[in-house]
Amino acid sequence: MPETASVARCVVRRNDELLVEERVDPQAGRRDYAPPGRRIPEDSDPETAVRAEFEDVLGVTLGDLSVLGTFEDTLLYEGDVDDAWLYSEEGFTLYNPETGETDRLCWLHLDDFRKYGETLRPAGLLDAL
């Protein structure tokens, strides 16, 4: 794992769309999107961390993964999900009973980022796709 990577995320595609998590900064009034992922625990490796995120949060299994690269502090993988139901959903909201927070995941077309100004994080990821 690169020393600078503290987060692991995975790009999952559905044709020209990406599965992304919507993140809102209420203080700044901004919204951005990032592939699903999580912080890498000290006792774990990036691949295990990103697989655990998909299994724990979405209940799906990632297939083979390939490394896209490190962007900012994030190691990015690209992979497919073995569970077909995920590809048939347009978006969904996940509720975390421990924190009381909700997360919104959806499929956004690459044009939403390239032409229409939505922000994909980490910086540099869109150019790598």
By DSSP, the count of extended strands is: 9
Approximate helicity band: 10-25%
CATH homologous superfamily classification: Nucleoside Triphosphate Pyrophosphohydrolase
Under CATH at level 1, the class stands as Alpha Beta
Can you give the mean pLDDT?
Answer: 90
Figure out the total of helices: 4
Radius of gyration: 14 Å
CATH fold description: Nucleoside Triphosphate Pyrophosphohydrolase
Order of helices and strands: EEEEEHEEHEEHH
Weakly predicted, low-confidence segments: none
Largest sheet: 5 strands, antiparallel
Overall outline: globular
Report the structural category. Answer: alpha+beta
**Strand-residue proportion:** 35-45%
For the terminal residues, how far apart are their CA atoms?
21 Å
Judging by the overall fold, what is the CATH architecture?
A: Alpha-Beta Complex
Count up the domains: 1
